[in-house]
Design a protein that fits this description.
The protein has helices spanning about 10, 20-30, 50-60, 75-90, 105-115, 130-140, 165-170, 185-200, 230, 240, 255-270, 275-285, 290-315, 335-350, 375-385, and strands at about 35, 100, 120-125, 140-145, 170-175, 205, 235-240, 250-255, 325-330, 350, 355, 365-370. By secondary structure, it is an alpha/beta fold. The mean pLDDT is about 95.
Length: about 400
């Protein structure tokens, strides 16, 4: 059979780092081992019943059996604007400042080829969500990284970015609450970011995937809550984490009108919008009583406390995360991230994500997802304790 050569675009795409982790976990499970998989970011709890029921009812509506509007239903855009007004006191024009996405990942990948040309510069956090690199590879742009260091509370130090890099940069990606470090950002940081963007003609792209998940009574800050945010950027939100709707693939970009226009344009050529019933169910999620979200955050916070408590018991003195459902753990001296993750997997049958999979500055850490029951999280701690590594 003839082998057709892949395009240069496909050749530039980064290797999917976590494919190796999935294969290792599957191998151990096939051998009959009980693996506690804390290495991935897939919510383990089901979508709330009222959202599922809303989908079932909407699926019976013949109007939803037709093509939806290419840019998404007007009602879903209005529900997004209502959500932002209620949750963050941010005013949005549903028609011009909201784009409906096939999950936030789609928007995060397509925004770079929508706003840059080959050879342009894009600023990415390191460590960061690996799929940012998918969009930069497709656009054939130059990537400059911003180290996220513990001494800076895992926030980028803009003063360390060379002036020539800032002058060339077109996009600046941020993500708070942060995957993988679980750090959060305050209004002062976003204010500083907006000042930088205005000075250097940058477009800010804030990945707000974990926006609903903040602990100790503190609500995560939206980038759009800072004055002037819409002038210089957009925020990407997703229903995946807030409502356990990861498999539903629903997200939105909100903010700068010209960026929203660009996203809608590229999506006009690539997609034919989301199934109408899913959009209707998403409207219900955004506008219904948010007690379901509060209960979810309480569940994650309880899991966090159980897991961190167990880590302290075994002598692994780690910081409790302030957001996301991840814990960013420094590895013991003498091990690389991958070496330590392999030990945990092969000897304790606990899967974690090695930090170097998120970038150069992720080396020296592993990421744990709080995506199993408290009992299983405590058991993971007991298994790790038996390795006598601390």
């Amino acid at each position: 059979m003839k082998q057709f050569e892949h395009s240069e675009v496909l050749k530039r795409l980064p290797k999917q780092f976590f494919a190796d982790l999935v294969q290792k976990v599957q191998r151990l499970k096939a051998e009959g081992h009980d693996v506690i998989n804390l290495g991935q970011g897939n919510p383990d709890l089901p979508t709330p019943p009222s959202i599922v029921k809303s989908l079932q009812e909407a699926a019976e509506d013949p109007q939803n059996h037709k093509y939806s509007p290419f840019s998404g239903k007007k009602e879903l855009k209005e529900a997004t604007a209502e959500f932002y007004k209620r949750e963050y006191q941010v005013e949005l024009d549903p028609e011009t400042e909201v784009a409906i996405l096939f999950g936030a990942k789609t928007g995060l990948v397509e925004i770079t080829p929508s706003l840059t040309n080959p050879g342009d510069t894009v600023l990415l956090p390191d460590p960061g969500y690996p799929d940012y690199l998918s969009g930069t590879a497709m656009a054939d742009v130059r990537v400059e990284t911003m180290p996220l260091l513990e001494k800076n509370s895992f926030l980028p130090d803009y003063g360390e970015i060379p002036d020539d890099v800032l002058s060339d940069a077109k996009l600046l990606f941020l993500n708070y609450p942060n995957n993988p470090t679980s750090a959060t950002a305050d209004k002062a940081f976003f204010d500083k970011t907006i000042d930088l963007a205005k000075e250097h003609d940058l477009c800010v792209v804030h990945d707000f995937a974990y926006g609903a998940i903040g602990y100790d009574g503190k609500k995560p800050q939206s980038y759009l809550q800072s004055e002037g945010a819409k002038d210089v950027g957009v925020e990407m939100y997703t229903l995946s984490k807030t409502y356990n709707m990861a498999g539903w693939r629903v997200g939105m970009a909100v903010g700068n009108r010209s960026v929203i226009e660009a996203i809608n344009l590229i999506q006009d050529h690539m997609y034919v919008s989301l199934f109408g019933a899913i959009q209707d169910a998403s409207i219900h999620a955004l506008t219904a009583d948010q007690e379901m979200v509060r209960q979810l955050v309480e569940t994650y916070e309880s899991r966090r406390n159980a897991f961190i408590g167990k880590m302290h018991d075994i002598g692994w003195h780690v910081e409790a995360p302030t957001g996301t459902f991840f814990v960013w753990l420094p590895v013991p001296d003498g091990y690389s991230s991958e070496e330590f993750a392999d030990i945990l997997l092969e000897q304790a049958h606990v899967a974690t994500a090695p930090g170097n999979g998120f970038g150069e500055y992720g080396e020296g850490y592993v990421r744990v997802g709080l995506l199993d029951s408290e009992d299983r999280l405590r058991e993971a701690g007991d298994r790790i304790a038996k390795l006598n590594l601390f």
